[in-house]
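An instance as discussed:

___
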Amino acid sequence: MDVILAASECDPVAEIICVPANVNELFELPFIGGVNRTMLLMGLAALIAVALLWFGLRRRPLVPTKFEAAIEGIVLYIRDEVALGIIGPKDGIRFFPYLLALFMFILIGNLFEIAPAINFPITSRIGLPAFLALLTWVIFVFMGFKRQGAAYVGHILWPPGVPTGLKPLVGIIEFVSTFLVRPFSLAVRLFANLVAGHVMLTLLLVSGYVFVSSVGDIGAKALVGVGWFALGLGIYVFELLVAVLQAYIFTLLSAVYIQTSVHPEH
């Protein structure tokens, strides 16, 4: 069995795979100084989100088109079921724009994974999920102190309704969960799901293509690639569901965390 090595310099005769001196070369755009592929796609995702909401809601006709009905359905669901339904009528409407923007941006960023000629979900780079999770964390911690003052931490460390003997243990668990675990779990959940799907989809489709395109060299063994490619198409449909579900879960948990800060009695 031949051994394929990686080196910093190419050697086509020895079949050595080249390793770039800087991994950022895989993402940088040489024609735009300082801008990489992820940054460009982030801006594109934001523009697409704004365009969808603008063109979907600007007319508000009595009989909307299918596109307008779809956008209106998304907006009404995030407003009624997520913002108002979880946070409450009074405070939910204040956070509705943030939750809607969060959902639309993450959804479009996730869908880049299955978009032709892109095939790269921006949420598979940990920096973006971490930033969005930190933003949600700042909002619900700020609202907790704003509404409850020092009692916000007091209720976490000494939770009411818990037997006195268990309060120290439960308080420590709640403190770590609220201030450390929540932003970490929000970021990692989104990041890990998109990375796993992206890697699996890429491996299946690329390996299928490599096998099929090598039919002249390997003969009937190339049929293995047809199976890989078919499985990849199945994963492709599955990743569409994952993209929508992960955007919804991130938005839903953000609403839940905000709700626990503005309505501690719940």
